[in-house]
Amino acid sequence: MRVRFRCDPNLLASLSPPVPARDALPDWLRSMPGMAASDMHDGAPIRTVKQCPPFVDAMMQGFVMTLPCDVQVRDGVLSWNWDVPALATGTHPRAPMSFHAAAQVEGTPFVRGEQLVVKFNSFWTIRLDPGWSLLVSHPVNRDDLPFRLLSGLVDADRFHEVGILFPAIWLAPGFEGVLPRGMPVAQCIPVRRDALTLDIGAFDADEQARYEATARILTEETGHYRRVTRA
């Protein structure tokens, strides 16, 4: 699967690029323990999500779009000092972030008091192969970020002349600090535009036997999914 990224020629040398999601895992995942004492198990150690392949594999799926410069957040104000060169494309955005009108989410669960609806501007166009769309979501399992990206699906095999903009709800009105250059702002996963057929029914005898056999293995052996079935 080839994903083609293009940007204004005057930005290519200095712009932070998209990166494979596996290369943008957070520090807390690397540093967290693999085992932890569980009060529910009388203090016995149990495996943490660090040892859960589905949890980690979801975080490594696709690629992430990153913030092109540091953004300072202080007293509810977002600011940046980004020395953007003269661009060859006159209609191209120059600011890393902008805003949506709050009325655009009126009637949704995203309205919580006076929270801002921010927008991460994109400086890259994204082109997929024919028949593929791009599922754009908040970086998976990244509740440490002070915003929540709104999910969307873009037919990026047909829409790729301009960049995709990434709207988000700002969740932390009291946040003070810096959103660093290179921080993931959106996780993007290519998906095929194939119609689904839902085949629903009860176990046959073979399926029931395999269910019970696999369930026993998962109970008796540690790491079966990781060792045997994980792709």
Describe this structure in words.
The protein has 231 residues and is α+β, with helices and mostly antiparallel strands. It has a domain at 4-25 and 60-192: Deoxyuridine 5'-Triphosphate Nucleotidohydrolase, Chain A. The chain has helices at residues 27-31, 53-59, 205-220, 224-229, and strands spanning 4-6, 19-20, 35-37, 45-47, 63-66, 71-74, 77-79, 97-99, 117-120, 125-127, 132-137, 147-149, 152-154, 166-170, 177-179, 184-192. The strands form five sheets. It has a five-stranded antiparallel β-sheet with strand order 2-5-16-11-13, with no helix packed on it. It has a four-stranded antiparallel β-sheet with strand order 8-9-14-12, with no helix packed on it. Strands 7-6-15 form a three-stranded antiparallel β-sheet, with no helix packed on it. Strand 6 and strand 7 form a beta hairpin. It is globular and about 65 Å long. The mean pLDDT is 93.
